[in-house]
Amino acid sequence: MNSKDSKSVAIIIAHPDDETLWAGGTILDHPDWNCFILSLCRANDKDRAPKFYNALKIYEANGTMADLDDGPEQKPLDPRIVSSAILQLLPQISYDLIISHDPKGEYTRHIRHEEVGGAVIRLWSSGKINAKELWTFAYEDGEKKYLPRPIESAAIYQKLSVPVWLKKYNLISETYGFAKDSFEAQTTPRNESFWQFTNYSDALQWVTNSHK
Question: Is residue 119 situated within a structural domain?
C-alpha cells in the first residue's frame, strides 16, 4: 500500500481524532503525501487541541483548527458557516486528493460529520476548492447495532498491517489519551475504507441521495 507518488492531500474533518479514527492508517501508509489536516471544531479546547497538534507531528503533516460550535445538543449549523471556515483555513484551494467525512456520517449519527462531508462536496462541485479526486470515509454501524465498521464493498478498502494499526491505535490511546474502554479506542478500525469520486457531479448526487 506504500506509494512513491508525492501528492498534495487535504484531510478535512469535524473533530481532532477523526483523521486518526477513519484514515490514520492510510496517512501513515503514505509518508510521501504532503498532508494538510483541518479540524473544524475544538480549536479552543485546552485538552483536545494540543493533542491534535501532537498527532500532526507524528503524521509529519501540517494543519490547523477552527472552533465551530460542538455543543452536546448538536444544533445544525448554517452551511455557509461551515463552508466559510473551510475556505478561510485551507492554505490552498487545489489538491491532488481531498479526504473528508461522508455526508451520511460514519455512525448513527453525528451531525457535524455529516455537515462537514456535505460542505466539502458542495465546495468541490462549485469549483471553490479543486481536487483530482475526493474520498469520503466509508463506515457504518448497523444503525447503532455495533461499533462502526469499514464497508468492504466501498471503492477503496485497505487492510492495515499490524505495525501500522498499532501506531494508529497508539495515536488514539496515547496521543489523544482515550481509555481502552472508550468508544474511540474500541472503535479504532483495523481496516479503512473510502468512497471515491473523480467527478464532482457524482459526489453531489451522493449528497442528494444521502439526505433523502
Answer: yes
Q: Which domain does 82 fall in, by range? A: 8-210
Residue 167 lies inside a defined structural domain of this protein: yes
CATH number for 192: 3.40.50.10320
Report if residue 137 sits inside a domain. yes
pLDDT tens, 25-70? 999 999 999 999 999 999 999 999 999 999 999 999 999 999 999 9
The burial of 129, by beta-carbon neighbours within 10 Å (0-12 exposed, 13-18 middle, 19 or more buried), is given as buried
Does the pTM surpass 0.90? The reply is yes
Calpha distance 54→69 (Å, rounded): 23
Reported as a pLDDT band with limits 50, 70 and 90, residue 153 is very high
Are 211 and 103 in contact by the 8 Å Cβ rule? The answer is yes
